[in-house]
Design brief:
heterodimer; A: 90 residues; mainly alpha; Non-ribosomal Peptide Synthetase Peptidyl Carrier Protein, Chain A; 3 helices; globular; B: 402 residues; alpha/beta; Peroxisomal Thiolase, Chain A, domain 1; 2 domains; 10-stranded mixed sheet; two-stranded antiparallel ribbon; 14 strands
């Protein structure tokens, strides 16, 4: 069966953090998982490729109001919103 | 050890097709950044850049030359022509045999790579033009300058990403200072504003979509430019003996490596390079009136560069001026230090400090005098030019008024 968005996002983050997806807690901060600025850019690239979406992220403004990527839960929520936004109605 | 002076300068960039045009734009705080006019720009998410506009290769080069000269080589040759003409030098006999060329570029013939990958991958053709290799190689511009001016001494190209032309000019300085060559044409060239060039930078997510605002609290990234600048570095005694007009003296150079991260800059690596250049020049910190900043407009660079300057200069950091001319001519990558040296020499010769344009909001982490938005008249006798490349390769030059 196909994975949920949350599972896929968790797998992408786990790969960047070099951890097992089971070890990725939803309330974990990406930084606390050892994902640095380059790791974050790479994870966003993987997310964009997986879901065919554009994530509005500029490394110069990581904390901008455009998108919250601070925790695993925030990333999942952001991706779900972006995926819903690109889905065709009906 | 020879003293080293600058006796000629030339450029083409988004601010102008010559040094006078470029300096006029800097004095007027004109910004050369605008919508990118390149093939497939609609498939880019970054659509601004500091392009050289109104440039027709056919006006300067014949058909055979255009077949051999990538855009970065064309820019380098035009800049060299202006510089050599100003110097009044004719390279003949022993002078030709010992003089040379040292250029910086990061990408070399990026447009040639881009166009020919399209040919074989996108169009599916199995044959490319026979001159693709000599056209795209990073050293092509240096070779063509050596051929044009019969420079038969040292000739090479330096590639250290965004510090390439500062490293190149540093090598030229050391070659002339040591007596290895009486004259070196030096500087850098870059022409990366093509679909593949911008697409690669987009991926890193450090580019601004709207403007380059160095040191401003609302800065959101760098904006790429293109162009070249070339200088004639000449032994002082040689220049004096022929009664040359001396534009400035090159007095110091230092290079350091952060040895820490492939993209994140380091305050310590930058500070060591700045200190090293002043030590090499025998300059006291209080003697430095102006610094042409690396000032890319990224969150990380500007903050760390200001911290490095504050560390090195202490209380004097608040008295010196530091501006980023990238706000006007864009980040010309491997050619940027060369174009920025024009602003350094203008400060020494004309007493005009080029501004940081697009400055909107003070940033407490960049609380130096960044010469916001308007050029300033000020007498300075010694200046520095910073370049801190990706991969932590730093190169700082020191110039003095003659």
């Amino acid at each position: 069966m196909s994975q949920t968005i949350a599972e896929q996002v968790r797998a992408i983050i786990a790969e960047q953090a070099m951890l097992d997806p089971a070890e990725i807690a939803d309330d974990a901060a990406l930084e606390a998982l050892g994902i640095d600025s380059l790791g974050l850019v790479e994870a966003i690239f993987a997310i964009e490729e997986t879901f065919d979406i554009q994530v509005p992220f500029n490394a110069n403004e990581p904390a901008s109001a455009q998108i919250d990527l601070s925790t695993v839960r925030a990333v999942i929520a952001a991706v779900e919103k972006l995926v819903a936004g690109t889905a065709q109605p009906g | 050890m020879n003293r080293v002076v600058v006796t000629g300068q030339g450029t083409i960039n988004a601010l102008g097709h010559s040094v006078p045009e470029t300096l006029a734009a800097m004095r007027e705080a004109r910004c050369g950044i605008g919508p990118l006019d390149i093939r497939d720009a609609d498939r880019l998410s970054i659509r601004i850049g500091a392009q050289v506009r109104g440039f027709a290769p056919e006006a300067h080069f014949n058909r055979q030359q255009i077949a051999l000269y990538d855009r970065f080589t064309q820019f380098a040759l035009l800049a060299a022509r202006e510089a050599v003409a100003q110097s009044g030098l004719r390279f003949e006999g022993a002078l030709a045999e010992r003089s040379g060329v040292v250029l910086g570029t990061a990408g070399g013939g990026t447009n040639t790579w881009d166009e020919n990958y399209r040919t074989v991958y996108e169009e599916g053709r199995n044959r490319v033009h026979p001159f693709v290799v000599p056209k795209l190689m990073n050293s092509a511009a240096a070779s063509h300058i050596s051929m044009r001016y019969h420079l038969m001494g040292p000739g090479f190209t330096v590639a250290t990403a965004c510090a390439s032309s500062n490293h190149a000019m540093g090598q030229a300085f050391q070659l002339v200072r040591s007596g290895a060559a009486p004259v070196i044409l030096t500087g850098g060239a870059e022409a990366m504003l093509c679909f593949g060039g911008i697409k690669a930078w987009e991926g890193l997510r450090v580019m601004s979509r709207d403007a380059c605002r160095p040191f401003s609290a609302n800065r959101n990234g760098m904006v790429q430019g293109e162009g070249a600048a070339v200088f004639v570095f000449e032994a002082y005694d040689h220049a004096r003996a022929r009664g040359a007009d001396i534009l400035a003296e090159v007095v110091g150079f230092a290079m350091t490596a952060d040895a820490s991260d492939i993209v994140v800059p380091s305050k310590h690596g930058a500070a060591r390079a700045i200190r090293g250049a002043m030590a090499d020049a025998g300059l006291a910190p209080e003697a430095v009136g102006y610094i042409n900043a690396h000032g890319t407009g990224t969150a990380a660079n500007d903050k760390i560069e200001c911290a490095a300057v504050a560390d090195v200069f202490g209380a004097h950091a608040d008295r010196l001026m530091i501006s980023s001319t990238k706000s006007m001519h864009g980040h010309v990558i491997g050619g940027t230090g060369a174009i920025e040296a024009l602003a350094c020499i203008m400060a020494l010769r004309e007493g005009v400090i080029a501004p940081t344009v697009n400055y909107q909001e003070p940033d407490p982490e960049c609380s130096l005098d960044v010469v916001p938005n308007v050029a300033r008249e000020a007498e300075v006798t010694a200046v520095l030019s910073n370049a801190f490349a990706f991969g932590g390769l730093n190169a700082v030059l020191a110039f003095r008024k003659v």
